[in-house]
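Sanity check

After download, print the first record. It should look like this:
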Amino acid sequence: MQSTRVIVALDYASQKDALNLINQLDPNQCKLKIGKELFAIVGPQFVETCISKGFDVFLDLKYHDIPNTVAMACKAAASMGVWMVNVHAMGGAKMMAAAKEAILSSKHQPLLTAVTILTSFDSDQLSAIGMLGTIEENVLRLARLAKNSGADGVVCSALEASRLRMTLGTGFCLVTPGIRPAGSALNDQSRVMTPAEAIKAGSDYLVIGRPITQAKDPLASLVVINKSIGL
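Expected structure tokens:
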């Protein structure tokens, strides 16, 4: 696998726009994240196109269903050759364990990560859906559940990364969205950090979208970010 730590979020509504960006990037400088909207439009073939161009692909579909359904979805994702796939930790231990078992039975075995609390959430939104305790407490509880269920890591805010790293150890992967270089707009994110702050806090991989995808020179912006984290 590549040693790059930045995952560029391909938050586009068309294959043409996504390819236009990809053709400006370097697979030695970043990985790619394909989410629900783009995948619904372009499907598995586009994932395979990205991989053929040398990119590691994080398939960010956040599976959350009964264990067998999620297991079969993860097995299908593995067959595409993706680098990472994710599920919702709130799907429970049985669901996550089934997902991991399905991946281990596949010829290609991507990393399995579990989403804890979405980085767009704040404390008011958390309480509105009936979850007790602070965001950090819920993230830690779900991350422990994910690790005990066989997941390779979690998707979390960089604000929780330090405590998770201290509690769960160095072998557990932390993928952090909500990364904004200094001076960037927050957009729809509530809990954010700069790239350098996130790495210092213990993040392994940084998911970055608009600061790169909407830049006049996406590759130049990516290079600046990589330099800020020592790459």
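If your output differs, re-run the checksum step. Summary of this record's structure: The chain has ten helices and eight strands.
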